[in-house]
Amino acid sequence: MKVLIIDDDPTILLAIAYITKKIAESMQIEIIVHTTDNANTAWEMFRNGGYDGVVSDVMMPEINGDKMVEFMLPCQCERRHRVCFITGLTDQFNQNRLVAGGVDYVLNKTEIGKVGSKAYNEYKVYLASLLVKSDCGSQSPDAIANPSSL
Predict the structure, then answer these.
(1) Which residue, 50, 81, 119, 129, could crosslink 112 as a Cys pair with Cβ 3.0–4.6 Å?
(2) Using one digit for the tens of pLDDT, what is the confidence trace for 59-68?
């Protein structure tokens, strides 16, 4: 499974990559993580990379998250990957707008690193959904992310 992580803040980029690898390890998922701090580079990587998932900041210098999703999802019916936005936008209006635009998950930047937080647990479900989406497993994302619930 391959995930592309995009954020213009190098500290957040490294933190999300680290969290992604740690969650995948705890869930016993093999994951390849690629990172970039540039939206244009991300677009090229995405077009050529065969990613199962994309985790992106919403506000970037070259392009905003809405445009990024527009480029990535030209046809909803052909969609093979899942998109997760990590953002500081906490108001419900902006989060609903992103979901309506084709984003699968919108998580709070400040909460995702806190083990046990809602954002952390939702990120685990997001990663598990990639596993199911790539046909590497047959369980539901919730069951994979929370094995104790089985």
Answers:
(1) 119
(2) 777 777 667 7
